[in-house]
Write a structure and sequence with these properties.
It is a single chain. The protein has 577 residues and is an alpha/beta fold. It has 19 helices and twelve strands. Strand 4 and strand 5 form a beta hairpin. The radius of gyration is 35 Å and the shape is elongated.
Amino acid sequence: MNRTLLKSVREYKKQSILTPLFVILEVFMEVLIPFKMADIIDVGIQGQNMEYILRVGLQLVVLAMLALFFGALAGKFGAEAGAGFAKNLRHDIFYKVQDFSFKNIDHFSPSSLVTRMTTDITNVQMAYMMTLRLLARAPIMIVCSWILTLSINFDIAMMFLVAIPVLGFALIFISKKAHKYFIQVFDEYDVLNNDVQENVNAARVVKAYVREEHEVKKFNKISETVYRLFTKAEKIVAFNSPVMMLVMYAVVMGLVLIGGRAIAFTTMDEGQMTSVLSYAMQILMSLMMVSFVFVLIMIAGASTDRITEVLKEVPEMQDKENAVTEVPNGDIDFENVNFSYAGEGGKLSLKNVNLHIKSGQMIGIFGGTGSAKSTLVQLIPRLYDITGGSLKVGGIDVRDYNLAALRDQVSMVLQKNVLFTGSIYENIRWGDESASDEEVQRVCRLAQADGFVQEFPAGYNTMIVEGGNNVSGGQKQRLCIARALLKKPKILILDDSTSAVDTKTDALIRKAFREEIPDTTKIIISQRVSSIEDADMIIILDKGEINGIGTSEELLKTNQIYREVYESQVKGRAENE
């Protein structure tokens, strides 16, 4: 456990301190019990003193009850500390991820983040809880038992003093050998989880193409890799048990030899021998506990590294101290903007982009696959930071804005429309959680979604299943547009978000935009000419560069890319008619 993770203990520091404290008290009670038992045998039984036996026996009962009481409290506080620590870790990682830019998220796969927040945190939780209880208990038990053994027999105490370091060195050696394999195992777990997640999400596609057997083979290959790495790690860890047993048997043999001779030569009483045997068992059991916790710590060590990596990831985008919190209007200005996903020195996805968009305009963005249309609009709400040049919204550089304030005024409907588990009302209110039912219904009418929603038996209370798989692609797009409209943004971006709706519905949506939100800057990316031909300005992108700017009529005269696509699509419409 490192300092980064221990910061997450926070309000559970009290439980984390009380747990080992009560464990120590429990140990003190337990180590006194063999000492009192020796007195009963050597004084009470041999002296046939019933009064002494009863008095010391009562003390034994009190010690046992106190040990039970302290043990129960240690268990209670240990469970609270472990569960609370895990809760805070999940909270810290989740909140950290919320601050990540797209570039930060690209550094970790979604499946990897899920594994780190579940399996890895569970490993750390178990190790932390067992460390508080067993690693506090074992050293105190070993020290106290050894001191009391030393008071009874010096030779047996020295034998213990030799055995303990031998076992310690063996455990450290095993740990170092196994750690690298546990790291590799959890990295493969990420791949395995990603494969399962992808397969489940794309179950319809898998079945449609009859690719079940292929997916099973792919899963088995990854699972086999996890099995092989885990086997390597466990083979090394498996040496822990025989080393432990070897030390234990050596100690028992030495104890029998030394103790037997001491009793034979009357240098040690039978009761003392009973106490030494009890202390020997306590020491050996404590060593076994250390061995068990050591294995947990080895596994948790790999998980700790992976969790720390997320917590130490520095968000690429940080708000300035006096960040602007108000977006004046929907003006957008690109001035010599360059962008690379790899950062400075990387291959440019956008090159020397110069654009000036006035607030309230409807802008169409057109271009072939890979022309960087989505990349261009993702720079506006600062999902990625530009690599060079200047990008201003409302006359202010986007890097001077408070991120939340900027994104609250720039609504995006992405290519991959996402709906969440919950009712239609709940999904639309992502745009404004305080919106009334009437406001929700109004934006749904603007997005041409009200008609099909009203046809559902439960209307707006219809539950959307995970991913929105119980609505069609066109219905999902219209619900996402309604959600974006509810934010009342100054800039609305539709990234190919009407591709699944018919041309008539598409036209009605654009008409509603012009009439109902005239002051909002509207940017529409589309492969369909009919979706953008009535725009105030159309931007043609080609290989990350602006190939042409103008109205539809102007581009038909001056831009070959637009003219060719326009003519092919218009001809296709005419043939269909």
